[in-house]
């Protein structure tokens, strides 16, 4: 009989595989919900709210799963960074189309302020996932309006999501940059989304500069303002 120790199960790997499967399942649910709404549109305001709740909660779960999987890959250093040139308007339009059902059922006005010729170098999938996450949160907390904007400031691309809700709570505005292990569970959540956005921003580097995020309540439309800076 061999006395060699048995290799234990890598629970983190098992969990990551399970998260990946769950993410795919939730994605299928979201696609099915969109098809259902096209074939059977809401007949009244009550039904519209029910569709909206289903769409939002499914999108939120999908976001959390994507973030968990991405953080796992970051910490295990097998998250590749694929930098290429992209037009910003394509990124914004993709996210608007992706969340069309949720935006429509919640009767939200969504505007885009972006030069159609503006392009930059970054990882499309990672940056899109940040914008998607912030947009979903904006849809939840806005009163009725969201603005996606892009500009170049001090040789950095600035992608912003503004809403006309009540703004970010002090606990988020005063929060220093920290690791995922420092995230605290509170009424405002774990702030995993902020950690996720910060790490993705920092992965984008150019010479001695790296990306970062900024939160404020200085939105031109009276609510919260999230900005992602990419060198």
From TrEMBL:
<dbReference type="GO" id="GO:0000155">
    <property type="term" value="F:phosphorelay sensor kinase activity"/>
</dbReference>
<feature type="domain" description="Histidine kinase">
    <location>
        <begin position="17"/>
        <end position="231"/>
    </location>
</feature>
<keyword id="KW-0808">Transferase</keyword>
<keyword id="KW-0418">Kinase</keyword>
<dbReference type="InterPro" id="IPR003594">
    <property type="entry name" value="HATPase_dom"/>
</dbReference>
<keyword id="KW-0597">Phosphoprotein</keyword>
<dbReference type="Pfam" id="PF02518">
    <property type="entry name" value="HATPase_c"/>
</dbReference>
<dbReference type="InterPro" id="IPR036890">
    <property type="entry name" value="HATPase_C_sf"/>
</dbReference>
<dbReference type="InterPro" id="IPR004358">
    <property type="entry name" value="Sig_transdc_His_kin-like_C"/>
</dbReference>
<dbReference type="InterPro" id="IPR005467">
    <property type="entry name" value="His_kinase_dom"/>
</dbReference>
<protein>
    <recommendedName>
        <fullName>histidine kinase</fullName>
        <ecNumber>2.7.13.3</ecNumber>
    </recommendedName>
</protein>
């Amino acid at each position: 009989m061999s006395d060699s120790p048995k290799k234990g199960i890598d629970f983190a790997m098992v969990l990551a595989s399970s998260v990946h499967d769950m993410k795919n399942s939730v994605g299928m649910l979201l696609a099915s919900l969109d098809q259902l709404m096209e074939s059977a549109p809401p007949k009244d305001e009550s039904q519209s709210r029910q569709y909206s709740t289903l769409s939002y909660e499914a999108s939120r779960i999908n976001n959390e799963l994507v973030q968990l999987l991405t953080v796992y890959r970051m910490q295990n250093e097998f998250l590749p960074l694929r930098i290429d040139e992209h037009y910003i308007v394509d990124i914004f339009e993709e996210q608007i189309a992706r969340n069309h059902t949720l935006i429509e059922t919640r009767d939200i006005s969504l505007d885009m302020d972006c030069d159609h010729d503006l392009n930059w170098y970054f990882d499309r999938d990672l940056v899109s996932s940040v914008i998607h996450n912030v947009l979903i949160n904006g849809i939840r907390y806005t009163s009725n309006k969201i603005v996606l904007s892009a500009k170049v400031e001090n040789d950095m691309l600035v992608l912003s999501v503004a809403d006309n809700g009540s703004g970010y709570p002090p606990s988020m505005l005063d929060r220093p940059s920290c690791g995922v292990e420092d995230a605290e569970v509170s009424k405002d959540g774990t702030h995993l989304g902020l950690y996720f956005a910060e790490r993705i921003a920092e992965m984008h580097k150019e010479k001695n500069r790296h990306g970062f995020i900024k939160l404020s309540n200085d939105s031109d439309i009276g609510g919260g303002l999230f900005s992602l800076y990419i060198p």
